[in-house]
Amino acid sequence: MNANDILRKLTSRKFIAAASGFVAGLSMVFGLDGNIITSVAGAVVSAASVVSYIIAEGRVDAEGVKNAIEDAQQAADTIKNSADNGQMFE
After folding, report:
1. In the predicted model, is pLDDT for residue 84 greater than 80?
2. Residues 64-75: b if buried by 16+ CB within 10 A, e if exposed
């Protein structure tokens, strides 16, 4: 398992929700006010959802750019090969 896999798992919404539930449970055990616990847990889960969405969309966009660059390079290579072989104006 590499660092990207670990980061992906730690930033998953399921993990963040589970961790915030665990922390909320511990907070109740140690006597914190229920309203504060609910507010903080809601804020953490909301923030985690936004961050996860941003990371996922960034990866999707990066993959799209990578594919576009590969397609452009392939088209440029095809044009260059055609020009090198004298087939450009046939």
Report:
1. no
2. eeeeeeeeeeee
